[in-house]
Amino acid sequence: MGAGLIRPKPGWLAGLDPASLGWQALALLACVAAAWLVGRRYRAWQRSQLAEQPHSQLRRVGISFGCALVFPAVASALLLVAWAGFTALGLPSGVLRVALGLVVALGLVRLVVFLLSNALKPGPLLRASENLIVAVVWVGLALYLLGLLPLVVRALDSAAIMVGDTRVSALLAIRALAVALLVLVLAAWLSRMSERRVMDSPHLSPSARVGISKVIKLALMALGVVVALQVVGLDLSALAVIGGTLGLGIGLGLQRIVSNFISGFILLADRSIKPGDVVTVEDQSGSRYGWVQELRARYVVIRDRDGVDTLMPNENLIINPVVNWSYGGESVRLKLPVRISYGDDPEQAMALMEQAADGRQRVLADPAPAARLMAFGENGFELELRVWVVSPEQGVNNVRSEINLAIWRAFRAHGIAVPFPQREVRLLDGGRLDDARDRSPSP
């Protein structure tokens, strides 16, 4: 499609009579409404297809591509047919020709934004603003094609205020916003590429990978802001005022945010916690047990056995006690308390407890399981089995449960009773109750 079709000549509306203009407007509205209905039905059908069965990533991209371009494609086809029909009948078709060029421009803008979105992988904010970006770019392109862009530029440049010795116009603000957005998107893309490379490096520890990727991302973002300010011609000495304001804001209300940010770098520097560690964090809300999934700038993602992710602020891991089951070594010691009645042989019970732990999966043979007589309790002998378990990141309560079940089976097979408190109430003369006392069941 040539440039003459897309960009109209100056004065293209001159000479149009109201009747021809009305017929072209009616045809234009019919084409746009039909294209909108087709696009709506197509998107609803594609959503139902995605909900019914899973699809590969390539097919999902293809479906998104179709949803983004279905409206301009259908509208372009219908307007082309309408324009050809008006031309064949010898009727004026300037409005349809211009509308066709604008719809083609909309399709090109949507195509470019879609390709950049899938290539750069922007953040959720930019992805949510994709339609707004398309609308802004298309409006600018439409004004250029219609020859109205110089008038709009002069109007925006005339709307200006003086800030000190600097003239700030609406045109400068829009240009600064566009350049800053472009530079920050490129900086985010470069940081994401570098982060992917660093995270895939086999020569770095997990904490070092996260730390290096965070530093690279922060440096690229700061560089992007400085470059954007330089491009729009702002004086960088104004950053001193911004820095003073930021320092005041940190002193008044941003202490926790900055504390979490600095705590994240401390966790990376001392390598006390890294992705994959099994930790138990004690805080005001209780105990949190789970696997460290991610180390972020403000929080740590901890996933428990139920698959629930807890976003734990970095500061909590600095100021609160943290049990890192993966930090010190590959094994931990478990203590399993057991109580037997006074009528049973404690030595036999201790031997059965050690046999119940021998040969269990993840239970070490050296040091061997050991049973101890800890105390003479109110209801029976207080015994304790001590075992060393490897790979605590796979859980310790599962091993505890297996050993307890094995001990219970052994005790039942050898007639060893596990006592429980019983209360005896005696009714004396006059209906008065004697003091209750606990006692174990008779052997």
Report on the structure:
It is a single chain. The protein is built from 14 helices and 12 strands. The longest helix has 35 residues, at 18-52. The protein has helices spanning 3-6, 18-52, 57-88, 94-120, 124-128, 130-145, 149-158, 170-199, 206-231, 238-252, 255-270, 314-319, 346-357, 397-413; strands at residues 160-163, 166-169, 278-283, 286-295, 299-303, 309-313, 322-324, 331-340, 370-376, 381-390, 422-424, 437-439. A hairpin with a 5-residue loop joins β5 (299-303) and β6. The protein is elongated, with a radius of gyration of 37 Å. The protein has a 5-stranded antiparallel beta sheet. Strands 8-10-9 form a 3-stranded antiparallel beta sheet, covered by helices on one side. Strands 1-2 form a two-stranded antiparallel ribbon. With 443 residues, the chain is an alpha+beta fold. Residues 335-417 form the Mechanosensitive ion channel MscS C-terminal domain. Residues 214-255 form the Mechanosensitive ion channel transmembrane helices 2/3 domain. Its main location: membrane.
Secondary-structure element sequence?
A: HHHHHHHEEHHHHEEEEHEEHEEHEE
Helix content: 55-70%
What is the typical, i.e. mean, pLDDT? Answer: 75
Assign the structural class, choosing from mainly alpha, mainly beta, alpha/beta, alpha+beta, or little secondary structure: alpha+beta
Q: Please state the CA-atom Rg, rounded to the nearest Å.
A: 37 Å
Q: Report the count of strand segments.
A: 12
Largest sheet: 5 strands, antiparallel
Shape, per Cα inertia axes? elongated
Question: Can you tell me the residue ranges where pLDDT is under 50 for at least 5 consecutive residues?
Answer: 1-5, 436-443
Largest sheet: spatial strand order:
6-5-4-3-7
End-to-end separation: 101 Å
Residue share in β-strands: 15-25%
Number of helices: 14
Domain Mechanosensitive ion channel MscS C-terminal: 335-417
Pfam families: MS_channel_1st, MS_channel_2nd, MS_channel_3rd
Family: Belongs to the MscS (TC 1.A.23) family.
Membrane topology: Multi-pass membrane protein
